[in-house]
Design brief:
about 350 residues, alpha/beta, 4-stranded parallel β-sheet, 3-stranded mixed β-sheet, 14 helices, about 45% helix, binds nicotinamide-adenine-dinucleotide, binds 2'deoxy-thymidine-5'-diphospho-alpha-D-glucose
Length: about 350
């Protein structure tokens, strides 16, 4: 799997290897700003788990390393991406390289394995799970997106993800490549890099720093716990139909304002920490997906937002060394660039 040192990918590795069912996982990760070897410490520190785990530092867009690893794999899961919308607004190129070229490199490697399988050189080619996002549907004014809705991405991040989805689909149609696509909603939980809404607001609040709420804060997201997201991807890998797309919903539709209120209540911190700042350009107002197709395949989210948020806040409180390290160095430069002017011109929320 790619991107296994990131937030959702590392949860997938930890949860799957802890089943101790004999599965072996090789992670290919470039260790970009969100990739963190420490997210895999629970694995490497347990000799029985470490024995079934291999880490390769490399780029999903590098055909040499990808070809070699795919040749040895039974299944491939592509979590690798530049994942932060705000960064894609400032500098989009890496999003395209990983989100489009990276997917193409994986698809070509799998196509070669299909040719080897047809020649009797291996049992069958690996299936690819392309991990995608609700953002490919664009901002949804009303109702819920179904998997057959047209793609209408509105940020460079979402456009790169949509391009990856379409490329994967084209290989399924043209070459008969065994791919399945998961489209997950906004994910939260432990080990999330503190540049995204929930970990940024929780860690800022712990330090009594202002919480920068974009615009009116009435944008709506559907929150999905990271263990549920990882479990859904695994379910899709094992039970999904080839060529199909599956929405992964959390069923906790909340405005950003409401998320901020709930996390401050949980932390016992005042609303006065929240500051209204200049909005994100092109900010999607609302994401909402229909999860019926994956439900029909036998999967539903298991973690309520109330319990999941409390546990997540508990985790950040207990793992201060992890997030203080993540918030050092390049993070500080990012924070200054993204928020200094915004906060200087902020007002009461
Ligand atoms: P993340 O940023 O925490 O992790 C991404 C990982 O990919 C990092 O470990 C990074 O080092 C690695 N990576 C980046 N470029 C790479 C490259 N060129 N080669 C190899 N590795 C590379 O992101 P996340 O939140 O864990 O998201 C994982 C996947 O799930 C992404 O594809 C994202 O689009 C998708 N997704 C995320 C969410 C969410 O709310 N976080 C929701 C839906 C879908
Ligand atoms: O919806 C799925 C997507 O969710 C994933 O595909 C992305 O990888 C993931 O980053 C996330 O994208 P969002 O843009 O929705 O997440 P983010 O945490 O950046 O922002 C969530 C909401 O909070 C969004 O409406 C913007 C707002 N926000 C965010 C930040 C960082 C603020 O108001 N202030 C902030 O400082």
């Amino acid at each position: 799997m790619t991107g296994g040192a990131g937030f959702i990918g590392s949860a997938y590795v930890r949860n799957l290897l802890l089943r101790r069912d004999g599965t072996r996982i090789t992670v290919l990760d470039k260790l970009t700003v969100t990739g963190n070897r420490a997210n895999l410490d629970p694995i490497v520190e347990d000799p029985a788990l470490a024995e079934r785990f291999r880490f390769v530092h490399g780029d999903v867009a590098d055909p040499g390393v990808v070809g070699e690893l795919v040749a040895m794999a039974d299944a491939v899961i592509n979590f690798a991406a530049e994942s932060h919308v705000d960064r894609s607004i400032i500098e989009a190129e890496a999003f395209l390289r990983t989100g489009v070229i990276g997917v193409h490199v994986l698809l070509e490697a799998i196509r070669r394995e299909a040719i080897r399988a047809a020649a009797g050189e291996r049992a069958r080619a690996p299936r690819l799970v392309q991990v995608s996002t609700d953002e490919v549907y664009g901002s949804v004014a009303g109702g819920r997106s179904t998997e057959s809705d047209p793609l209408a991405p509105r940020s460079p991040y979402a456009a790169a993800k949509a391009a990856g989805d379409l490329l994967a689909h084209s290989y399924a149609v043209t070459h008969g490549t065994d791919i399945v696509v998961s489209r997950g909603s906004n994910t939260y939980g432990p080990f999330q890099h503190p540049e995204k809404l929930i970990p940024l607001f929780v860690t800022n609040a712990i330090d009594d720093r202002p919480l920068p709420l974009y615009g009116d804060g009435l944008q709506e997201r559907d929150w999905l716990h990271v263990d549920d997201h990882a479990a859904a991807v695994d379910h899709i890998l094992r039970h999904g139909s080839a060529g199909e797309v599956y929405n992964v919903v959390g069923d906790a539709h909340l405005t950003n304002r409401e998320v901020a209120r709930r996390l401050l209540d949980e932390l016992g911190k005042p609303w006065s920490l929240v500051r209204t700042v200049e909005d994100r350009p092109g900010h999607d107002r609302r994401y909402a997906m229909d999860g019926a197709r994956l439900a029909a395949l036998g999967w539903r989210p298991g973690v309520s937002f109330r319990a999941g948020l409390a546990a997540t806040i508990g985790w950040y409180r207990a793992h201060e060394a992890w997030w203080r390290a993540a918030r050092s160095g390049a993070w500080e430069a990012w924070y200054e660039r993204q928020y200094a002017t915004r906060l200087a011109g902020s007002r009461k929320a």
